[in-house]
Amino acid sequence: DFNPLDLSLDLPLVLLSNRGPVRFDRDATGRTVTRGAGGLVSALSGLAEHLDDAVWVCGAASEEDVAVAGESAGSSILVQTYPSPRLVEGDPDGPAIRVRLVVTDPTAYADFYSVWSNPVLWFIQHGLYGRSLSPVFTRAEHDAFENGYAAVNRAYADAVVDEVRARGGKALVLLQDYHFYLVADWVREQCPDAVLTHFIHIPWPGPDEWRILPADIRERLLRGLLGSDVVGFHTRRYARNFVLCAQELLGLPIDLEQLTVTVADRVVRARYHPISVDPAALDATQASEEVAAHVAMLRYIFLDDDRQLILRVDRTDPSKNVVRGFLAFGTLLDQHPELVGKVSFLALLQPSRTDVPEYADYIALIGAVVAEINARHTKEGRQPIDLRMVEDFPLAVAAYSICDVLIVNAIADGMNLVAKEVAVVNRRGGVLALSEMAGAHEELGEFAVTLHPFDVQQMADALYTALTMPMEERHRRLAAAARQVRTHDVRRWLDDQLVDLRRVAGFG
Ligand code: G6P
User: Which Gene Ontology MF annotations are present (predicted)?
Assistant: First the structure.
């Protein structure tokens, strides 16, 4: 069998993302190491473990990360990842990842992360600005761009350059996400033989949205990205928008069919590859005793007497549209009083980016809306919404497996892996109620009930449709969605990129 992982990489690999594959902390027993959560980590860890020469450059996220980075004095460390993560010196006796932790000045990092990456770039790319009052770019925001976003990008780019040079100047460089739009161009300048790709995991809107940004800054961001050989997205729509931005905002020649941009003597390609989940890992989690115990508890609380359960699992991010989701549920109960006491809504929400005022305010708003709906519709001591602020993956998987409806009503979402996780794990004929603005809708929309994220009445009606859908139909749709995800898993996301990259970049 042909294995793209082998085929693609006669080059060493240098990865860059803000969050790394492991995280160091300290407890009573001393230093601890945990594996990072999420699809990106499992996809790219698999790749990094597989290769003889790979390094993952990422931010030092905890105090202990900073201590580890200090001890390694600017060079990389080796972390054995299996059976449990641990720092090793010398040869590991199992799969391992080489990690380079970058430490930056905390003030610069705060401007980079809490001012520019979130909210500015995240908000523009998710269409979250109302525009009449925010954003405002004063001298302070311009300075935060220079001393924060650009300075931190430069520090990470320097680490990437260092690692590429240590590998003879030739490497495959995989840059990830909106934190690092300035990196590719800087790395190309210093390492002209490197093959550079930048994958963007969030939506890419059309040129008009980008006009919100100061002209000099948006040009720098675009030019930075165009330092790559390939810019990757989850959907064709985002890739197209990117190419249109290069034409409209920079005046560069493009080919909209081929999705290419010509930059001086180079051709930059936009590509789309939908990210996915690791079904085997999800199956293993679902089979665990911990999940079984949660399932029993959730069934007891929510599913006695033919009751039904609506679920949402999200970070508390305004783009997830949590508040309108609850308003739609409130409307559903107002208009179908027979459902009161019969349908519960479990929301597992993880507090996120709470240093950013917009995010902190959003959590407060969620709390107020839930309190109001619960006050209006509590029946026989039973509150319709159970809001839990937790990050507990086994609990989420248990809830995935028994929910009747999953609601994903994002205003915009690059992909949304929760929908794919539920498709794999659900055993109850769960219906996906999926925003037309989530990347996952391109693959799963035909098996889902579509939601229009601003239309609260439409969402209430769609929830009603999902809850009253005949069981046979529910199972048919779920089985089809599960098949789609299992045959298009995260390994395929990676393989397709590598095969494509080898072809378009003509290396190896
Ligand atoms: C999204 C982004 C990731 C980011 C994650 C969590 O999925 O695409 O790059 O890591 O959100 O956000 P956080 O700010 O906690 O890293």
Answer: alpha,alpha-trehalose-phosphate synthase (UDP-forming) activity; trehalose-phosphatase activity
Integer-rounded Cα radius of gyration of the chain = 23
pLDDT at 1: 41
In contact, 316 and 348? CB cutoff 8 Å: no
What are the pocket residues of ligand 1 if the criterion is a CB atom closer than 6 Å to any ligand atom?
18-19, 177, 201-202, 352-353
pLDDT band at 488 (very low <50, low <70, confident <90, very high): very high
Atom 9 of ligand 1 has which residue's CA nearest to it? 177
Q: Is 2 exposed, middle or buried (0-12, 13-18, 19+ CB in 10 A)?
A: exposed
Give the tens place of pLDDT for each residue, 136-145: 999 999 999 9
Instruction: Report which protein residue has its CA nearest ligand 1's atom 16.
Output: 19
Residue 136 CB-density burial (10 A; 0-12 exposed, 13-18 middle, 19+ buried):
exposed
Q: How confident is the model at residue 258, as a pLDDT? A: 96
Gap from CA of 412 to ligand 1 centroid (Å): 14
Higher pLDDT, 426 or 36: 426
Question: Under 8 Å CB-to-CB from 125, ≥6 apart: which residues?
Answer: 178, 202, 203, 204, 205, 209, 412
d(CA 385, CA 374) in angstroms, rounded, equals 6
Q: How confident is the model at residue 2 (pLDDT cuts 50, 70, 90)?
A: very low
Amino acid residing at 388: R
Q: Are 176 and 47 in contact (CB under 8 A)?
A: no
The stretch 419-443 carries a mean pLDDT of: 98
Phi/psi of residue 69, nearest 5 degrees: -60, -40
Name the residue at shortest CA distance from atom 8 of ligand 1: 201
Can you tell me which atom of ligand 1 is nearest the CA of 179?
9
The stretch 344-360 carries a mean pLDDT of: 97
Q: What is the 3-state secondary structure (H, E, C) of 424-455?
A: HHCCCCCEEEEECCECCHHHHHHHCEEECCCC
Q: Calculate the average pLDDT of the chain.
A: 94
Scanning the structure block, which residue is given the tokens 């980590």?
41
**Which pLDDT does position 500 carry in this prediction?**
81
